[in-house]
Amino acid sequence: MKLHILAIGRLKGEAESSLVEDYLKRLRGLSRQAGMTRIDTREFPESRALTAAERMRAEASLLTEALPRDAVTIVLDDRKASADYLQQRLQIGYMRATDLIERMEREGILGAPVYNGLRPILIGGGGSREI
Fold first, then answer.
1. Which string of DSSP letters, residue by residue, matches 4-41?
2. Which residues neighbour 113 within 8 Å (Cβ) at sequence distance 6 or greater?
3. Residue pLDDT, tens place only, 78-108
4. Where are the domains of the chain?
5. At a CB cut-off of 8 Å and minimum separation 6, what does 68 contact?
6. pTM of the model
7. What single DSSP character describes residue 109?
8. If one looks up domain 79-131 in CATH, what number appears?
9. In which residue ranges of the chain is pLDDT below 70?
10. Residue 108 phi, psi dihedral angles, 5° rounding
11. Cα gap 36→28, rounded to integer Å
């Protein structure tokens, strides 16, 4: 399992940086016990919008766009490639989840559904494996 930390804005100085590093150090120790094999941290620039509401909308849009990219990671880590599963894990609509599955098929990550509806994973893990 993989943990994703998405942050808006840059760290402001040494004090904030050391707090985040200490947090990540502690989290890495706990994550191994919880079965998380990797922690991924991403920073996004703050919005330069004038009003707080516009900034919040712009930043929410950034985070929403970042999450679907993790659909591939979810499929590879959890070995499940259904729209229902992605919808639940990413908390997105069913149609968006279906689009992500179809996009992964077009990009060669997943194969077409076979006779029983399962899709083979075409990348990672040393060959294809149906999920």
1. EEEEES---SHHHHHHHHHHHHHHHHHHHHHT--EEEE
2. 119
3. 888 888 888 898 888 898 888 889 888 887 8
4. 1-69, 79-131
5. 90, 92, 96, 100
6. 0.48
7. S
8. 1.10.10.10
9. 1-4, 6, 11, 32, 35-38, 40, 63-69, 124-131
10. 80, 15
11. 8
